[in-house]
Amino acid sequence: PVLDTEDAWVSVEGPVSIVELALEQKRIHYPLVEHQFVLCTILYAIMRLSLKGVKPLSLFDSKGKNAFFKDLTSIQLLPSGDMDPDVLSIRQQFLLKVVSAAVQALCSSEKDREVSEEDHFPFEKGKNWPTLAADLAQYLQISEDLVRRHYVCELYSYGMDHLGEE
């Protein structure tokens, strides 16, 4: 970018401006940041929904695991379109667990009407875990329809037919 400066600022001496420092920084590799974001979302879902027995790194192949420990400015080989069917199966099971746990949490908060959902999750006003799982499915190469169908089935199985119809 071109930085236009006024003549009065050209002769000023002192430390380098923050804008110049920012422009000197290396560019980040955005797909690597997205990859890190997926891991953070997975870890947050595990923690928030209290999922037991989930090993987060098992959801990634060897290239994906190696990419987590590299500098964000480096160009890394990220997982390609061809994935191991075992990894895809583990990912699918994880996403279905997330949806099941979210519906179970919703059902338990519906039963406790006197305690609002915001009291249970004060920092997550408006957080929709099943939608987040469907969005995460895109990154994990799992069919969104499969996740949405499981969500509807879970809603019906917990007796929330009005939400399942929507």
Provide structural commentary.
By secondary structure, this protein is an all-alpha fold. It has a domain of 115 residues. 58% of the residues lie in helices and 0% in strands. The protein contains 9 helices and no strands. Helix 5 runs parallel beside helix 8 and helix 7 runs antiparallel to helix 8. The relative contact order is 0.11. The mean pLDDT is 82. InterPro entries: RAB3GAP2_C. It comes from Vidua macroura (Pin-tailed whydah).
How would you summarize the topology of this molecule?
Elements: H1 7-10, H2 18-24, H3 30-48, H4 62-67, H5 85-111, H6 117-120, H7 129-139, H8 144-157, H9 161-165
Helix pairs in contact: 5-7, 5-8, 7-8
Pfam families: RAB3GAP2_C
Protein name: RBGPR protein
Domain Rab3GAP regulatory subunit C-terminal: 1-166
Q: Which short descriptors sum up this protein?
A:
single chain; 166 residues; mainly alpha; 9 helices; 58% helix; 0% strand; elongated
- Total count of strands: 0
Shape: elongated
| Radius of gyration computed on alpha carbons | 22 Å
Binned, the helix content reads: 55-70%
State which percent range the strand residues make up. Answer: under 5%
- The mean pLDDT is 82
